[in-house]
Every structure is written in structure tokens, then in C-alpha cells.
Amino acid sequence: MVLSAPAHACQCYNFSRAEIVQRADIVFEGTVAVVTEVRGLLQATIDVSRIEKGPPVTSLTLLTPGSTAACGVPFRITQRVVVAAMRDGRVWRTDNCMSLALRPAPFVPNR
Hints:
With 111 residues, this protein is mostly beta strands.
């Protein structure tokens, strides 16, 4: 007999952009500067270029689940992003259900 843990897949409700913005504590656009893994979570520091909602910040560090299967946002350094996040005590959190736009990192040719 083989026992296995139940599969957990990311499931997002079909919220509109307006609903996501309404639920969020901050909505901003920026460039991913640093990505590290911390205890199974990704920690991304983003240089903020525009704030749509929330406090004025120039940089924000947030946490997201460490895998896309757990709704983690696959942040990549130099990637332009538009993110909605929620405050959880002293920590900002987001997930794939709240990320509004991920753009690929720009191509930089080797010289």
C-alpha cells in the first residue's frame, strides 16, 4: 500500500483587477532587484517606480510561496512587475492570485 499526501495546486478565484486592487494594501510597479529563498518562501526586493495604492515607498521587500504550485510568484531579477500585496504584521505578502503583471527580464547581450 502506498500512501501519498494530497496534491495542492494553486487555485485563484477570477477576481477582476479592480477587486484585487480593492483587497490589496499596496499596489505598485517596479523592477525586481533581489530574489532569495527563505525557509521555502521567495523573498523579493523590488525597486518601486510607481505606486497606485498604498504608502509611499521607494523599495519594498515581500514574500511569496516558493513554488508556482503553491501560488508563488516566479520573480526574476531585472523583471518589471505590477504587484498587489497585503500587509501581514511587519511583512508584505503576495501570490500569483494578486500579481497583476509580470514582464520578462530585458535581454542584455554579452559584449
